[in-house]
C-alpha cells in the first residue's frame, strides 16, 4: 500500500480523459484527495497524463464501464494501492451521435442500448465492484453524474441549450440512472449516494451541435466536489452542481 494513501481521502473517477471528468481530477487534488483517474484508453489521454503527472497522482487506470474485465482490473489496482475508496464518482457518460437532437420516431434502438449500457448498467456495475472498497471507508460516498434532462417533472419545460427533438435515449438513460441510484441507496444505507447534474458544461458533449454552454468544466467540478463534501445531504438526493434540488 502507498503510505501517503493512508492519510488522504481516496477518490475514484470514471471517464477522466476529457470534459467534466478531467476537471474533477484537478479539483479533487485541490481538496486533498488522492485520485485514481480512470479512462477507457490511458495511452490516448495525453492531457490527463500531463495533469496527473503535474499533480503527482498515480497514472491513469484503464476502466471502460461496459467492460467487466477492466472494471475488475481497476478494482484490483486501487485495492492494492489503498485498500479503500472514500468517494466514487461515476462520471463517464455518453449521448447520441445527433445530440442534442434525437426525435423519438427515428431513434436508433441499438444506440439507445449503448447509452443504457454506459449511463445505467455501467454505473451500477462499477458501483457493485467497488463496493467492498467503499465499505472500507469510514464515510463512503458515491456521486452519480446525472442530468437535468433525466427529470420527469421538468421534461415538458424548455432546457437551456436544447433544441427541438426530445433526446429520448439520453433522457431515458439518465431517468433510469436516477431510479437505479435511489434503489441502490435504499439497499446500501451505509453508503451516501448523490445524483448530481453538472450544469450545462462546455465539454464535447455540452458543446455538441455548435452550442455555447454557460458553465466551464472547472466551475462544474468545483461544485460537484463541494456537494460531495457536504455532510448535511441525505442519501439519494437529486441536486445540481450548486446544490439546488432538482425535482424528480
Ligand atoms: N456537458 C454537459 O452539459 C452535461 C450536462 C448534464 C450531464 N452531463 C453528464 O456529465 C458527465 C460527463 O460528461 P462530459 O460533458 O464531460 O462529456 P464528454 O466531454 O463527452 O466526456 C465523456 C467522458 O466519458 C468517457 N466515456 C464514455 N464512454 C465510456 C465508457 N464506456 N467507459 C469509461 N468512460 C467512458 C469519455 O471517454 P473517451 O474519451 O474514451 O470517449 C469521456 O472521458 C456525463 O455523465 C454526462 O452525461 C454533462
Descriptive terms for the model:
about 250 residues, Rossmann fold, about 40% helix, binds NADP nicotinamide-adenine-dinucleotide phosphate
List the topology elements:
Layout: E1 9-13, H1 19-30, E2 33-39, H2 46-54, E3 61-62, H3 68-82, E4 87-90, H4 109-135, E5 141-145, H5 168-187, E6 192-197, H6 204-207, H7 217-228, E7 237-240
Parallel strand pairs: 1-2, 1-4, 2-3, 4-5, 5-6, 6-7
Helix pairs in contact: 1-7, 3-4, 4-5
Short description:
This protein is an alpha/beta fold and 248 residues long.
Can you describe this structure?
- The chain has one domain (3-240): 3-Layer(aba) Sandwich (Rossmann fold).
- The protein has a seven-stranded parallel beta sheet, with helices on both faces.
- The radius of gyration is 17 Å and the shape is globular.
- The protein has 248 residues and is α/β, with parallel strands linked by helices.
- Helix 1 (19-30) links the parallel strand 1 and strand 2 (33-39).
- It contains seven helices and seven strands.
- Bound molecules: NADP nicotinamide-adenine-dinucleotide phosphate.
